[in-house]
């Protein structure tokens, strides 16, 4: 199971990076995955060398290929001017419009106030609807007060991460679930 974690922040350090890393850690704790991180603070200069996918150099093509071939995407962005970052939009402008059909996507964002949390449903979710991706119903939003410095500290956000990852797991093929996570009462006696 290939999971690509995308942090749409162009800052380093970044609360958004820490949030998507916490989500990645939770995913890895419940299913066997190969996780690749795409942090736009490093990847944006590579991607901005191209205005179209056919202009990407080898390094840029590798980033886009990883996203297009992933089984699951975790996409997080800081709220910037009431939307996701322009760097994140440019990244997805380079992704083939057919490549994400049916892929599972868990959405996350960070912002200054709880009011910015609607950006996920008003901006990010429609973008992935365009791609015909399957977004997890629960998204994860964290405000500045949920962090101490750049470390996620709020247990309520961790609970929401667990809920979102639980929903993600139910959307995945049964073959990827770790047997140790299946309650013994659901395993047939003859197994």
What would you say about this model in short?
This protein is of the alpha/beta class and 191 residues long. The protein has 6 helices and 8 strands; from the N terminus they run E-H-E-H-H-E-H-E-H-E-E-E-E-H. Strands 1, 2, 3, 4, 5 and 6 form a 6-stranded parallel β-sheet that branches. The protein has a two-stranded antiparallel ribbon with strand order 7-8.
- DSSP strand count: 8
Tally the helices. Answer: 6
Secondary-structure-derived class: alpha/beta
As a whole number of angstroms, the C-alpha radius of gyration is 17 Å
Percent strand: 15-25%
Give the integer mean of the pLDDT values: 91
Helix-strand sequence: EHEHHEHEHEEEEH
Could you say which overall geometry the principal axes of the C-alpha atoms support? globular
N-C termini distance? 25 Å
Residue stretches low in confidence (pLDDT < 50, at least 5 long) are 178-191
Give the fraction of residues assigned to helices: 25-40%
Largest sheet, described in full? 6 strands, parallel
């Amino acid at each position: 199971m290939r999971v690509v974690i995308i942090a749409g922040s162009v800052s380093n350090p970044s609360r958004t990076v820490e949030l998507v890393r916490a989500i990645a850690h939770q995913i890895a704790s419940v299913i066997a995955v190969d996780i690749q991180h795409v942090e736009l603070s490093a990847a944006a200069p590579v991607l901005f060398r191209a205005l179209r996918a056919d202009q990407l150099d080898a390094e840029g093509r590798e980033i886009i290929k990883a996203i297009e071939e992933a089984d699951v995407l975790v996409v997080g962005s800081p709220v910037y001017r009431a939307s996701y970052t322009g760097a994140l939009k440019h990244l997805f402008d380079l992704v083939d419009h057919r490549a994400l059909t049916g892929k599972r996507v868990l959405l996350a964002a960070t912002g200054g106030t709880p009011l910015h949390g609607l950006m996920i449903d008003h901006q990010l979710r429609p973008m992935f609807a365009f791609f015909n991706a399957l977004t997890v119903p629960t998204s994860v939003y964290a405000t500045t007060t949920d962090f101490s410095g750049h470390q996620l500290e709020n247990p309520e956000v961790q609970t929401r991460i667990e809920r979102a990852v639980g929903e993600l797991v139910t959307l995945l093929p049964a073959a990827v679930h770790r047997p140790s996570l299946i309650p013994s009462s659901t395993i047939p006696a003859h197994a």
